[in-house]
Write a sequence for this structure.
């Protein structure tokens, strides 16, 4: 529309210029026509009276005057005069203007035209307006006896010009209005056409219906372009690049991570002690970072054989066989775990931060445990650091208070806190009775990261609503006294390449193995869902979408099976136990509705699966459906993409995940909209190979570039920048040659 307005202005300006030029040209031409016309008329008037004029010339002045009066009967002739050839006035009508004496007129004619010319005219100006004056010689051409001067009143001509001008202005006005109308109608039609095109792009054929909003695609494209440019010199982020960033920018060699969940759990089994890899997005992302950086991971020792496997400092070297970093286990008594982990973290903060229709439960005793356990872990961190300005990475909602507690003991520490789940709006966070303490605890961090800008905005709004502080919106920072906390989005990701994949059979073999293991036909079409059994993951909605698919797309009955891997999670919490039962019931109901012979549409595998098994399922399926009702990022979506090195397979992805902002080539759906979700599944099952490849290739490129090393590296680089600024402002004091020169 703005373009149309600009075009309209230019058009109108052009028309105006054209009209002015046209007017002047017209006025000049018509004036010339009138002059010529008047000269001719004058000659005709004199010729018709020539006989009488010549007869009375010099003889009868009265008759001569009468003849002149006859000539001036034409209302436009103002006056007439008869002049002797020497310039004497012989006779004149009353209204003949005195300004034009015979002598002056004949002299001007003599100067203007060659001798022998019989007539001449000019248009001089009088105070009363312009006139046309014509001189016609009387007598023989070679020997004229005098001249008749006729003066025409041109005021009618001025009036006519004025009328022409007014008509022209009117015509221009009408033309402008017409042009404006035409332009507006054209613009409107073009806009409508564009809108229809856009709607067609968003709603048209089966697969484009599930596209993200153009706004998201545009934002992503801009982000990619600017970040690629910025990082072009550094190349792809890798463990090596992350390591060198750590040493180069932070003069550090190790980091200390604080996270509730440990990356390796030692469990007692009938076959001895086993190492388990927990189902946790946080662990998926951070474990490769720790392998790259080395250091210590402080976590709750939750495995049944954890105590047996630590040294005297409660540490165990991991990964088994590789031993590149250590896990420092912190032990929790049962009531501590109940209050801090199950209670405040998972019955309070988890539902508070997720819009998934579970009411948060806040108990004062739980919060007391939360405070005590945060203190316990903060102390453990302080024991693990090897300098007074260490780099500490605090993870997730279990430790909102720890950053401030660590800061109290280690004021010079660089504390990078990452909140792995959404941060709700200020109104919602406001319902937590300890909201001020949580926010204040987090502001102990040097950097506070969220997955999305929206979550950052929500946090800053919460600070604004509940805290005494200064907010620097320009640099997204919160300032309290001399302390500054940067609040930034760092969308988390996975390692690239995924190290597990070297041990997982290729796609064709994985397909064969999975079908065989589940007793499915070789040509069975498979979909997969992989989650912890959590109410935020939309598992019930996902199964209902499968039901809807079979209802609305009968061609898939008997052929399509959906495999749901559901790792039991937080089972002490009633809400999770109820979910467990409901999911089981929904699966059973759908199976009873659509099963026939050996065929069942849903395979529900409610147990923990190790990463290699998980990746095998990703590879075996035609599509993966991530249907979270609300999710900070969701790394299952990115893992599926990483698993598909055959560039096949379709990702059906909830629009309520952080991942949907990056993986715009997925089929983006609203998981509550069963019709849309089931259509997306049908589209995934029918998608031509070429389209699958195109989408998958683009997503793989994105995840490979925006991998977890980059996620960690970006935070470390920002932390280094912050440290440099703090050193320069004297907050960190002078700690070596580099610092001294910086300070200087
Ligand atoms: C989410 C949280 C992680 C957590 C994971 C598994 O991804 O952000 O902090 O580790 O869920 O939950 P769990 O309670 O088993 O650690």
């Amino acid at each position: 529309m703005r373009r149309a307005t600009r075009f309209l202005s230019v058009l109108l300006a052009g028309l105006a210029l054209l009209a002015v030029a046209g007017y002047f040209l017209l006025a000049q031409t018509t004036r010339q026509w009138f002059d010529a016309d008047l000269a001719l008329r004058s000659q005709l008037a004199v010729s018709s009276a020539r006989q009488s004029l010549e007869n009375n010339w010099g003889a009868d002045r009265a008759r001569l005057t009468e003849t002149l009066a006859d000539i001036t009967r034409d209302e436009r002739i103002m006056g007439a005069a008869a002049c002797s050839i020497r310039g004497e006035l012989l006779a004149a009508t009353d209204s003949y203007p005195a300004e034009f004496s015979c002598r002056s007129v004949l002299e001007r004619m003599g100067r203007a035209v060659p001798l022998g010319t019989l007539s001449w005219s000019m248009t001089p100006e009088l105070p009363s307006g312009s006139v046309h004056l014509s001189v016609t010689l009387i007598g023989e051409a070679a020997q004229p006896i005098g001249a008749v001067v006729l003066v025409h009143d041109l005021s009618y001509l001025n009036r006519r010009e004025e009328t022409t001008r007014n008509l022209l202005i009117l015509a221009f006005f009408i033309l402008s209005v017409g042009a404006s109308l035409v332009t507006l109608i054209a613009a409107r039609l073009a806009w409508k056409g564009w809108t229809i095109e856009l709607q067609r792009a968003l709603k048209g054929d089966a697969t484009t219906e599930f596209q993200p909003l153009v706004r998201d695609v545009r934002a992503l494209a801009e982000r990619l372009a600017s970040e690629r440019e910025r990082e072009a010199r550094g190349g792809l982020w890798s463990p090596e690049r992350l390591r060198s960033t750590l040493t180069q920018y932070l003069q550090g060699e190790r980091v200390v991570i604080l996270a509730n969940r440990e990356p390796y759990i030692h469990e007692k089994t009938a076959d001895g002690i086993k190492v388990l890899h927990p189902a946790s997005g946080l662990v998926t992302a951070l474990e490769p970072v720790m392998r790259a950086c080395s250091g210590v991971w402080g976590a709750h020792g939750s495995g049944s054989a954890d105590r047996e496997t630590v040294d005297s400092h409660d540490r165990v070297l991991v990964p088994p066989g590789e031993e590149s970093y250590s896990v420092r286990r912190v032990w929790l008594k049962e009531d501590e775990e109940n209050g801090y982990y199950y209670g405040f973290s998972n019955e309070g903060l988890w539902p508070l931060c997720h819009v998934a229709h579970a009411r948060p439960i806040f108990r004062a005793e739980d919060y007391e445990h939360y405070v005590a356990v945060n203190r316990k872990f903060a102390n453990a961190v302080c024991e693990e650091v090897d300098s007074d300005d260490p780099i500490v990475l605090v993870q997730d909602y279990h430790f909102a208070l720890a950053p401030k507690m660590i800061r109290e003991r280690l004021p010079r520490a660089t504390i990078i806190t990452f909140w792995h789940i959404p941060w709700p709006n200020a109104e919602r966070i406001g319902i937590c009775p300890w909201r001020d303490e949580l926010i204040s605890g987090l502001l102990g961090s040097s950097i506070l990261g969220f997955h999305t800008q929206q979550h950052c905005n929500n946090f800053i709004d919460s600070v604004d609503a509940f805290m005494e502080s200064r907010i620097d919106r320009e640099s997204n920072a919160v300032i309290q006294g001399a302390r500054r906390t940067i609040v930034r989005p760092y969308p988390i990701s996975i390692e690239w390449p995924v190290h597990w994949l070297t041990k997982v059979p290729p796609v064709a073999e994985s397909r064969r193995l999975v079908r065989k293991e589940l007793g499915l036909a070789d040509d069975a079409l498979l979909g997969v869902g992989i989650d912890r059994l959590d109410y935020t993951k939309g598992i019930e909605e996902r199964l209902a979408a499968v039901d809807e698919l079979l209802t609305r797309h009968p061609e898939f009955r008997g052929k399509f099976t959906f495999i749901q891997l559901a790792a039991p999670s937080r089972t002490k919490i009633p809400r999770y136990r109820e979910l467990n039962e409901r999911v089981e019931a929904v699966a059973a109901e759908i199976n009873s509705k659509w099963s026939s012979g050996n065929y069942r549409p849903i395979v529900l595998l409610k147990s923990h699966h190790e990463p290699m098994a998980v990746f095998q399922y990703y590879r075996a399926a035609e599509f993966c459906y991530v249907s979270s009702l609300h999710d900070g990022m969701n790394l299952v979506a990115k893992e599926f993409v990483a698993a598909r090195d055959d560039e096949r397979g379709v990702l059906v992805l909830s629009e309520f995940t952080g991942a949907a902002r990056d993986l715009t080539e997925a089929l983006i759906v609203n998981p509550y909209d069963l019709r849309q979700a089931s259509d997306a599944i049908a589209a995934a099952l029918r998608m031509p190979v070429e389209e699958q490849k195109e989408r998958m290739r683009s997503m793989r490129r994105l995840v490979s570039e925006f991998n977890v090393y980059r996620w960690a590296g970006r935070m470390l680089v920002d932390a280094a920048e912050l440290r440099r600024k703090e050193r320069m402002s004297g907050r960190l004091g002078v700690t070596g040659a580099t610092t001294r020169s910086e300070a200087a």
Notes: The two ends are 56 Å apart (CA to CA). Confidence is low (pLDDT under 50) at residues 193-206, 733-744.
